[in-house]
Amino acid sequence: MSKVQGHLEMIQGVVNRLSHNSFLLKGWAVVLVSALFALAAKDKNNLFIILAYFPAVSFWCLDGYFLWQERLFRKLYDHVRVLNEDDIDYSMNYNIADVDGVTWSKSFLSKTLIAFHGVIVISIIIVMFLSR
């Protein structure tokens, strides 16, 4: 196996772990918010609905962080794939690649995260108003 291919496989492994973590976060966000809705309905306590904002926003922020890191490592992947065999040092430092414009805030506000986590937050708002 060439050094370039080995380095690319290392980077792809990190990207795979980050995307898997993001997938798990989405599942936990839905489960926790749903559980808090069930507790609110069972006990007729609106505090549980307000409490649902915490996991919804926390997981959105963390999901944005994972997406940001994934984008940075994809930039590193693009940088490494064109290097010569002699220039490969197996560095996982994504700052050697062109990472301008890749920010946490852009990842946090990406269309996919707004669509998923935004629906969760909107559902909390709707349930909060319907429970009054």
Describe this protein's structure.
The chain is mostly helical and 132 residues long. The chain is built from 5 helices and no strands. The chain has one domain. The protein is elongated. The model has no long low-confidence stretch (mean pLDDT 94).
Summarize the structure.
The protein has about 130 residues and is mainly alpha-helical. It has 5 helices and no strands.
Overall body shape: elongated
Mean pLDDT: 94
Beta-strand share of residues = under 5%
Order of helices and strands: HHHHH
DSSP helical segment count? 5
Structural class determined from secondary elements: mainly alpha
How many E-type strands? 0
Distance between the termini: 64 Å
Rounded radius of gyration (Å): 20 Å
Helix content: over 70%
Spans where pLDDT lies below 50 across 5 or more residues: none
Number of domains: 1
Main sheet properties: none
Structural topology:
Layout: H1 3-43, H2 47-51, H3 53-80, H4 104-108, H5 111-130
Overview features:
132 residues; mainly alpha; elongated
